[in-house]
Amino acid sequence: MNQGLHFVFIVMFWGLLLDGCSISESITSSYSSSESSGSSSSSSGSKNEVSKEMVPYRDDVANLTFSIAGSSMSPNDFSTALTRTATQYRISDWSQQKATYYGVGKGLKKAGVLKESIAQLPYLSKVLASDQNAVNLIEKGYGQ
Asked: 63-113 pLDDT, tens per residue?
């Protein structure tokens, strides 16, 4: 994606967040059509997946992560964006939800970020510091 288009996408994303819209309802992309087809099986009980109720939240986190991958977003801005997304789902602390980490991993995979580079992404530093198992959980989400 060229930088101009990436910038426009980020500006549109932040506008949606400020308007209080759900990202999964607002972003129409091939991401949702190819990835969400397996989301109905998310409640299958696998330890690597989230409950059915958390799938929309996980997918919004994935869309958020996908939209900023490769950007120069600061760790604080990404953390704030996660907080806003979590708040839309009445989640008071995104760092306590496996769905957050799975969504980050899912979004990174869709963006083409190499799994091996996850720990070095600057905008993820606060996310990685929020849970001692964050890298493992993100990698599990990457594999979903």
From this structure: 999 999 988 899 999 999 999 999 999 999 999 999 999 999 999 999 999
Q: Is the dihedral of CA 86, 80, 5, 116 positive or negative?
A: negative
For residue 21 the two structure tokens come to: 């819209």
Of the candidates 6, 10, 5, 8, the residue with the CA atom closest to the CA atom of residue 77? 10
> Which has the closest alpha carbon to 137: 61, 41, 33?
61
Q: Domain-by-domain residue ranges, the chain?
A: 3-19+50-142
3-state SS string for 59-124: HHHHHHHHHHCCCCCCHHHHHHHHHHHHHHCCCCCHHHCHHHHHHHHHHHHHCCCCHHHHHHCHHH
